[in-house]
Every structure is written in C-alpha cells, then in structure tokens.
Design goal:
Order of helices and strands of chain A: HHHHHHHHHHHHHH
Number of domains of chain B: 2
Order of helices and strands of chain B: EEEHEEHEHHHEHEHEEHHEEEHEEEEEEE
Largest sheet of chain B: 6 strands, mixed
Number of strands of chain B: 20
Strand content of chain A: under 5%
Oligomer: heterodimer
Largest sheet of chain A: none
CATH class of the largest domain in chain A: Mainly Alpha
Bound molecules: adenosine-5'-diphosphate, magnesium ion
CATH class of the largest domain in chain B: Alpha Beta
Number of strands of chain A: 0
Distance between the termini of chain B: 29 Å
CATH superfamily of the largest domain in chain A: MetI-like
CATH architecture of the largest domain in chain A: Orthogonal Bundle
CATH topology of the largest domain in chain A: MetI-like fold
Shape of chain B: elongated
Distance between the termini of chain A: 53 Å
Chain lengths: 293, 406
C-alpha cells in the first residue's frame, strides 16, 4: 500500500523537476535569442541597405527586403574609392603587424614566463599596469615622437610599433599559457643543446598553438579595423587603409549609404573568414591540450 | 684526477642551503649513485653538474677544466628526467633526433644513429608514435635513447625508475646496468631507493640535508656505515639499534641494554677509534641477518617475546620485544658473570626504534622452518663480527673499520 502511494509521488516530483529543467532551458534560449538578434540586427540592416537603391534608402518607410535588389552597389562601391589600393595598404599593414606583434609578444612572454632574472616580477607588474593606461594619454607624445622620427604620413608609423613588444595584453595572455608548460621540458631542450630562442621555437611555441592562434586573431582584427592610428598618422589619401577609406563615402552634403554598406560588408568578410578558420583551430587546440593533460 | 670533481660546491636557494659538497671525485666510467631521502638535494646536485643551475660558490671540474660557466651543451652531458620530459608534440623519432638536429648533424647520419639507438633499446617499432601514446616503460626507453644518441661524456639520471611499477622497475634496472657495461659512459644516478643503489652502483654517495655523509662501494657502506643515518638508510630491513650502557669489569667491556647484555670481544675493542675508550653510553647496531634467534641458545645475549612474524617468502623475520622476559630466563644483568652490576631496568635504556619505554624491538632473521608465534619466548645472540657501535650524541661510528677489513 505504502509502495503504491510512494511511487506516484516520486514520479510526480521527478516530473516537476523535468518540467523545471525544460522551463530553465527555454528561458536561457529565449534570452540568447533576443540577445543575438539584437546583435545581428545592425548587421542585417547593413546587408539590406547595401542592396537598396538611393530612393529606397531615403524612403520614409523602412523595409528589410530591398525591391529591386541592386547588386551593382557592390561594383560601384569598389570603384567609388580606390578600394584595391586601400586593400593593399591594409593587407600590408595588417600582415606586418601580425608578424611583428605576434613574434614580439611570443618572445617577451617567454622571458616573463621562463627566464629567471632579478626584478622580473616587478617588471611584469609594470607591464600589467600599462594596460590600465588609456591610449589617449600617450597619443600626443607618441605622435610627436613619430613625427620627429619622420614617420608622419608614412605606413611605418602603423607597422613599426607592432614590433616593439606586441601589446601588454597579448604578452600577458601568452605568458599565462607558457607558465603551464612544464619547466622540465625546457630543461630537457637545454640539455639537448637548444638556446632560449631554440626552446621557444621548437618546444614552447608548438605547445602554445591555441594561445598563439587566439593572440593572432586579436592582432589581426585590431589592426584590420584600426581607424584611429591611420587617421592621425596618414594625410595622403593614397596611403589610407580600408578602415579609414570607408569614411570617403561620407561627405559634407550627403552619404552614399548603400555604397558605404556594400564596401563595409566586403571589408568585414576577411574577419569572418579568419574567425571561422581560427574557431576550428581553437577547438582542435583545446582537444590537443586536453589530451596532454 | 677524476673525470668529474665537485670542489667546495654550495648551492643556496634564497638563503637556504640546498647542497653543500666539499669534495666529490668521480672517475671515468664509474657508475655513481647519489642516494638520500627526498629533499636532501640530489636533484639539485644533478642540475648543478648538468649546468641547469649554477653554484652559489665552488667549482665544478670536468676533465680537469672548470665548467661553471659552460652551458649543458658545452659540457656535453645528457640527462634523463624523473618524469621523462619527452616533448609531447614530437614523435619518438624527433624526440631522439632533436639534439643531433641542433648540432646540425647530416640527415642520413641522424637517421642511422636514431635507428641504431632504437634497436639497442628495442623501441624501433615506436619511432613514429607520440609520447602520450606509450606506456611508462616505453617512454622511459625513449628518454634513455634521447640521452644515449649523442654519446655524452656524462650520463645523469634523476630517479628514472620511480614512476614505473615494481616489476618493470626491476627489468629496467638491469637494463640500465647492462647499458652502462656496454657503453662505459660515466653515469651519475639519483635515487632514494637503497636497494636500487646497492644493485647499480660502483660507488654510492649518501646525502642528507645537502651534505655527503659517506662515499663508498655498496659493500663498504653496508658493512661500515660511518654513522647512524647511513646505518639505518642502507639495508632492508633496517639495522637494529639499541641504547646501551658501557661497563667494564675485569678489563672486559660489557654492553647493557634493555633485555640485552653482552661482552665486547677484544677484537672489537681494538677497532674503537681514537683513545680506544668507549663513552659511557653507546648505540649498538646490528643487522637482522646477524641476529640468531631460537628457543634456547648457548651463550644467549638476551631474551624477549616475539611480537610479530614477518613472512616475506624467501626470508622471514621475527620482531622480538626485548626486556620483556618470561619465566626461566635471567633478567638483564642477571649477575651470572660476577662484577657486572645490575643497573638495567632504570627505564633510561629505551633504544632507537623503541616501541614503548623499557622495551626495544629487535628484528631478526628467522631460520627455522616453522612459523614463530606471537607471544613466544625466544633467546637471541648477536654475531660479534658484525656489530656496530655509534656515539649517541653525534651519531658517528665509534669503530674505525669494519669486520671485513680485519
Ligand atoms: N628552484 C628551487 N627554489 C627553491 N628551493 C629549491 C629549488 N630547488 C630545490 N629547492 C630546495 O632544495 C632542497 C633540495 O631539493 P632537491 O634537490 O629537489 O631534493 P631531492 O631531489 O633530493 O628530493 C629542497 O629543500 C628544496 O625545497
Ligand atoms: Mg629529486
């Protein structure tokens, strides 16, 4: 008798528990849905606008689906500004910065993680503190310095700084990752005759691929989309990068919104591609380190 | 001149002295084992020799040349790490080949040498594996291969067998010994396992708290431990130690301990170091194999009660609680030999390894076929030729040389 009473009560509690789990899950998905559509809306608006004619853009009633679809916006956009020239500049600057900042931060982080030296901890503290410093504070002295060095109106001003340290945050991130690599491996490599650079290149870097990939993506995106540095250092229009060049669609009197959006989408494509490639690599890297552990 | 000399070497880590070795000479081709409990500075010593650590003071001399400032590569030493430290992202082949690649050895020679070493160590079929996909024993062989392939001047091994299971440890132990015989490379091997040291070493260096306590052949450190620490560390089961008073009567010296009373023979007395006089109290040491136990012995040195029978199969041991005597046995100092006063039983004689005050546990080999029963009354006799005497204050041996060198 007791059992008969007991069983339904038990399953009832189980049922409410399952109900609650479903409810929580639904709520979570709802929040995610709202959040992601909020984030996606501007992007969709951008796609939509890039395919509209001028009259549709300025029409008082907003529509999501352009009618007719004006594909020619894209070809016109790439002719409106010297797109290929700017793309070339951007690729040059971004790739040089990627090489410079990635290798510099990889090397500096190695020093902080694996080399014993007096004052190392204090120096690392200074590095972390420098992350708190807003760029605007150093902007003017740095600008004056670069100008005196003759880097004004020259891509050098965008490229060379990347080779000088590679960014406090990147160093911090890589250093934390390097710290997890056993020192015994470095000792073994030393016994095998490797120099510190050899240890970094042959042992530490290959074991830090996920972290290096992440840092590489950060550097790529930061430089690809950098508007501020080109704005203050470059004066000749033919030296512009894409991020700065997009501004040419806006003039005093009118803005070619559909062309601007078309160019912006083309501008964003490489970032999407890099994210997709890197994401695959992140996952691979994570499983690799998981096996290692 | 030794192949490797450590001269007045000291290493501090933030004001803590980790290692202090005044003089250690290692001859060419020797198999030296650094033996000591964990934390005594074995790894640090090895790292100093390798060049991974630089001494706070002192000189490390290789082949007559001070190498303090040289890198591990310039010293041409190879090291096997405790947990192998194989590069996880490289195949076995590349793990072994790395140091040759760094040295820019031509490709086909690298290939030849890697295969040669792999054949020697029976790991040829594993060359394309990654370290994670191998057992501990296989990883161990790869680590050895990585060290061998370059023909180093010096082989350093830091507890290389401690991560293996007991059976594999024995196999690898004999393989390492064979390898040394075959290659003849000077080897410094670190372990905390005295048995491993006894089996492998040409000479054992016993360390405690960063200092050398004794250097000698396995036989030497076993037979003539220079102090209590070495005496207890070497040999299994541990050497029995008992606090004793020294009394003299009619020109003979007598040792009186808990349930124990023996006359020191003249030849032991001649080996007493220094003044030829024993202090008033000594620590008597005797190994279990040198204690004879039986129900009734002629010339028994004492008696006690069996508390534990230890069956190991090959050899069996009994634990005898002395000073706990049954009926029919003379108590300690039972004045059968006139002149020796009965002063035992004052409770001050609790020996090292005492179970409870007033008694001392003596471990002895049990040679009878039957099992000893707990509670059984037995008598024992110590082999006079194999007793050790230590100073209770300093722990140093009071005898100059061992029975072997008589
Ligand atoms: N890098 C280090 N920093 C500080 N102390 C250390 C360091 N390496 C070893 N020590 C200390 O030195 C002593 C000896 O250590 P170690 O050589 O590793 O002993 P063993 O290998 O015999 O177990 C220990 O007390 C240890 O704490
Ligand atoms: Mg150690």
């Amino acid at each position: 008798m007791v059992g008969r009473v007991g069983i339904p009560r038990q399953s009832a509690s189980r049922r409410t528990r399952r109900m609650r789990a479903i409810l929580v899950k639904t709520l979570v998905y709802l929040v995610l849905l709202v959040g992601s559509s909020a984030l996606l809306t501007p992007f969709l608006w951008m796609v939509s606008t890039s395919l509209k004619g001028y009259d549709q853009v300025v029409a008082s009633k907003f529509t999501w689906i352009p009618k007719p679809v004006v594909w020619s916006n894209y070809t016109r956009a790439l002719e409106f500004i010297p797109f290929w020239r700017y793309l070339g500049n951007t690729v040059l600057v971004t790739s040089m910065c990627l090489i410079g900042a990635l290798s510099a931060s990889a090397v500096v982080a190695y020093g902080f993680a694996k080399l014993r030296a007096p004052g190392r901890t204090a120096l690392f503290g200074v590095l972390l503190a420098s992350m708190m410093l807003p760029g605007q504070v150093t902007m003017i002295p740095v600008f004056v310095l670069f100008q005196r060095l003759g880097w004004y109106n020259n891509l050098k001003a965008l490229i060379i700084p990347a080779f000088l340290g590679g960014g406090a945050f990147n160093i911090f991130l890589l250093r934390q990752f390097y710290m997890t690599i056993p020192n015994e491996l470095c000792d073994a490599a030393k016994i095998d005759g490797c120099s510190n650079l050899g240890i970094l290149v042959r042992i530490v870097a290959p074991l830090s691929k996920p972290a290096l990939t992440a840092v590489g993506v950060f550097i790529f995106v930061a430089n690809w989309t950098d508007f501020f540095s080109p704005l203050i250092y470059l004066s000749d229009q033919e030296k512009y990068t894409l991020a700065l060049g997009l501004r040419l669609f806006q003039s005093l009197h009118s803005t070619e919104y559909s062309l601007l959006m078309a160019a912006s989408i083309v501008f964003s494509l490489p970032i999407l591609v890099v994210f997709f490639l890197a994401q695959r690599y992140f996952i691979e890297g994570v499983t690799l380190t998981g096996m290692k552990g | 001149m030794g192949d490797l000399v450590l001269s007045r070497v000291m290493k501090k880590f933030n004001d803590n002295v980790a290692v202090e070795i005044d003089d250690l000479e290692i001859r060419k081709g020797e198999f030296i084992v650094l033996l000591g409990p964990s934390g005594c500075g074995k790894t640090t010593t090895l790292r100093l020799i390798a060049g991974l650590e630089s001494p706070t003071r002192g000189e490390i001399i290789l082949d007559g040349k001070v190498v303090n400032a040289l890198s591990p590569k310039e010293r041409n030493v190879a090291m096997v790490f405790q947990d192998y430290a194989l590069y996880p992202h490289m195949r076995v082949y590349d793990n072994i080949a790395l140091n040759l690649r760094v040295d820019r050895v031509p490709k086909d020679e690298i290939d030849r040498r890697v295969h040669e070493v792999a054949r020697l160590l029976n790991i040829e079929h594993l060359l394309s594996r990654r370290p994670r996909a191998m057992s501990g024993g296989q990883q161990q062989r790869v680590a050895l291969g990585r060290a061998i392939v370059r023909n180093p001047r010096l082989f350093l091994m830091d507890e290389p067998l401690s991560n293996l299971d007991a059976k594999l440890r024995l196999t690898m132990r004999s393989e390492i010994k064979k390898l040394h015989t075959r290659l003849g490379t000077t080897t410094i091997y670190v372990t905390h396992d005295q048995e491993e040291a006894m089996v492998l070493a040409d000479r054992i260096v016993i360390l405690a708290d960063g200092r050398v306590l004794q250097i000698g052949s396995p036989e030497d450190v076993y037979e003539n431990p220079r102090n209590v620490f070495v005496a207890r560390f070497i040999g299994s089961p541990e050497m029995n130690l008992a606090d004793c008073r020294v009394e003299s009567a009619d020109g003979d010296a007598w040792l009186l301990g808990e349930g124990l009373r023996l006359k020191l023979p003249a030849d032991v007395m001649t080996r007493v170091a220094g003044r030829g006089d024993l202090p008033a109290r000594v620590v008597l040491g005797v190994r279990p194999r040198n204690v004879k136990v039986g129900r009734e012995l002629e010339d028994a040195d004492g008696a006690g009660e069996v508390t534990f029978f230890e069956r190991l199969g090959e050899v069996n041991y009994v634990h005898v609680e002395t000073g706990k005597t049954g009926a029919g046995m003379d108590g300690p100092g039972g004045a059968s030999d006139g002149g020796v006063r009965d002063t035992a039983g004052d409770g001050a004689g609790a020996g090292v390894g005492a179970d409870r005050p007033g008694t001392t546990v003596l471990v002895a080999r049990w040679d009878e076929d039957r099992e000893a029963r707990a509670g059984e009354q037995v008598e024992f006799r110590l082999d006079r030729a194999h007793i050790h005497l230590f100073d209770p204050a300093s722990g140093m041996s009071l005898l100059t040389c061992g029975p072997r060198s008589r």
